[in-house]
Amino acid sequence: MKVILLKDVQNVGKTGEVKTVSDGYGRNFLIPRGLAVEANQSELAKLNSEKKKKEEKEDRIKKASEELLSTLQKHHFIIKVKSGASGKLFGAVTSADIASHIKNVLGLEIDRRHIDLAENIKQTGEYKVDIKLPGSVRGQIAIRVESLEEN
Q1: Closest CA relative to residue 98, chosen from 135, 137, 144
Q2: What backbone torsions phi and psi does residue 67 show, to the nearest 5 degrees?
Q3: Rounded Cα–Cα distance for residues 90 and 37 (Å)
Q4: What's the angle, vertex CA 21, arms to CA 16 and CA 23, rounded to 5?
Q5: 57: buried, middle or exposed (CB in 10 Å: 19+, 13-18, 0-12)?
Q6: I need a surface site. Which of 12, 114, 115, 150 has the fewest CB within 10 A?
């Protein structure tokens, strides 16, 4: 008997897969518990349409993320913070600070979790910051941290 799995089933398969199982296992265990449905033409067509919708959604998300990344990479962000004479900051520049600065400069909402800082910036200077956007889009943006006293 062929079934379409509705949930992950250990030692059988993952959600959305079409699997061949014994008739008794399918009729007496998987289908009554809502773990699977019998793989007939209408269920297979529904599965294919759901997969197509999911792929289209992922493509839209990826395209939007790529456009956002290209917009971010066109700009060189300058963040002014208080620092000592040696360039050491009073505090640190975090991913939340960078996201807030991008929102103030460009008006674009960036989730702080998409900004990948290995550690907070604690010194003035030039930095390349990794960005991880939805749809597996990755890139770097340029940031310069300057002292407030510099003009």
Answers
A1: 144
A2: -65, -40
A3: 61
A4: 125
A5: exposed
A6: 150
Does this model's pTM top 0.85? no
Beta pairing partners, 132: 138
CA nearest 143: which of 99, 107, 112, 90? 99
**CA dihedral angle for residue 41, residue 46, residue 50, residue 55, rounded to 10 degrees:** 30
> Maximum CA pair distance of the chain?
79
Directed axis angle between helix 95-106 and helix 41-73, to 10°?
A: 80
CA–CA distance, 22 with 141 (Å, rounded to integer): 55
Contact between residue 38 and residue 6 where contact means Cβ atoms under 8 Å apart: no
Both tokens of 14, joined, read: 């993952």
Please state, in angstroms and rounded to a whole number, the distance separating the CA atoms of residues 26 and 140. 50
Q: Where are the beta strands (DSSP E) in 31-109?
A: 36-38, 76-81, 88-93
Tokens for 133, please give them: 């956007």
Strand-strand pairing, 125-133 and 137-147: antiparallel
Structure confidence by residue, pLDDT tens digits, 44-87: 999 999 999 999 999 999 999 999 999 999 999 999 999 888 88
- Residues 110 and 69: their CA atoms lie apart, in Å, by 10
